[in-house]
Structure formats: structure tokens, C-alpha cells
Amino acid sequence: MKELIEKVAALYADFEKDAKAQLENGNKAAGTRARKASLEIEKTMKEFRKASLEASKQ
Question: What pTM, to 2 d.p., does this model score?
Fold first, then answer.
């Protein structure tokens, strides 16, 4: 589960960097990367939720 938390943190850092680049500089490619990162974050958070539920059942 620790790996999932680290993965989410890394994905969020990438998302934040790209989202700021789009917002501040109008970088359209960064916006595309930010949207892609948000989908990856969502997928990883679902994995975390499953792992967390399994850990709480034990």
C-alpha cells in the first residue's frame, strides 16, 4: 500500500506542474498532460481504495 501512496504523490506532482504550466503560460500540451495525469491518479486511487479495504478486513 505504501507503493500506491508514493505513486499517487508522484502522479499528483506531475499533474500540478502541468496544470500550473497550462494556467500560467497557456501551454496547451501541458493541459493535455495534466488531464492524462488526472486519469492515472483516479485509477491509482481506486487501486488504493481496494488495498485499503483489504487491509482493514484483516
Answer: 0.84
